[in-house]
Design goal:
The chain has 84 residues and is α/β, with parallel strands linked by helices. The protein has 3 helices and 4 strands. It has one domain: SGNH hydrolase (Rossmann fold). The model has no long low-confidence stretch (mean pLDDT 91).
């Protein structure tokens, strides 16, 4: 599941596991949502796309990454895998 927190400017793609997917807490309290809020508050021209999957493994992420990069064409990639 991908969550987008804006639709303008440059894109930050967060690609991770449960730590980035906010497993166990409300999505709006996770670090990705907090990042998006901070960028908006600071009026920085970035949108944040969260392509993280709870339970994702490094191998699974590796197989999904090319499609996510092609689809979202991020200016910045935050890769957070390995906790699972």
């Amino acid at each position: 599941m991908c969550l987008s927190f804006a639709a303008w400017g440059k894109t930050i793609l967060v690609f991770g596991d449960s730590l980035s997917a906010a497993y166990g807490i409300a999505a709006q309290r996770g670090w990705v949502a907090l990042l998006a809020e901070r960028l908006e508050r600071e009026q920085l021209d970035y949108s944040v796309v969260n392509a993280s999957i709870s339970g994702e493994t490094t191998a699974g992420g590796r197989s999904r990454l090319p499609e996510a990069l092609a689809r979202h064409k991020p200016s910045i990639l935050v890769l957070e895998l390995g906790a699972n």
